[in-house]
Amino acid sequence: MQNAKTLLSLIGEEVLPLVETWLRSVVADEVQKALEADRMSAKPEKNYSRDEVCELLNISKPTLWKLTKNGEIEATHINRRVVYRESAIEEFRKNRK
């Protein structure tokens, strides 16, 4: 019985690092596939100008300015332009109701 335990112990010492390496490789591959699939499914978010946002929300530019200043709708700066992300507009609509 002692010999069997010793044999299993020796096999375990040799096999365990191989199994661990293989398992890490499999997990890393699956994570990479999942991340790539997520990237491929994500569409780029549309940015809207002030005029477009005013038209979408049926508000004036001064009202949009006040909403932005009060933090009710988030504006983003790209270079020197102020734009509104699609997600910010949707969140504003959701909170407004």
Describe this structure in words.
The protein is mainly alpha-helical and 97 residues long. Helix content is 70%, strand content 10%. It contains four helices and three strands; from the N terminus they run αβααββα. Strands 1-3-2 form a three-stranded antiparallel β-sheet. A hairpin with a 2-residue loop joins strand 2 (76-78) and strand 3 (81-85). It is rod-shaped, with a radius of gyration of 28 Å. The N and C termini lie far apart (74 Å).
Keywords, please?
single chain; mainly alpha; 97 residues; 3-stranded antiparallel β-sheet; 70% helix; 4 helices
* Secondary structure category: mainly alpha
Cα Rg: 28 Å
Count every helix, treating DSSP H or I runs of 4 or more residues as helices. Answer: 4
Mean pLDDT score, rounded?
86
Largest sheet, in brief, is: 3 strands, antiparallel
Globally, the shape reads rod-shaped
Helix content: over 70%
The spatial strand order of the largest sheet comes to 1-3-2
User: How would you spell out the order of helices and strands?
Assistant: HEHHEEH
Task: Tell me the total number of β-strands.
Answer: 3
Distance between the termini: 74 Å
TL;DR?
With 97 residues, the chain is mostly helical.
Topology, element by element:
Blueprint: H1 2-41, E1 47-48, H2 50-57, H3 61-69, E2 76-78, E3 81-85, H4 86-96
Antiparallel strand pairs: 1-3, 2-3
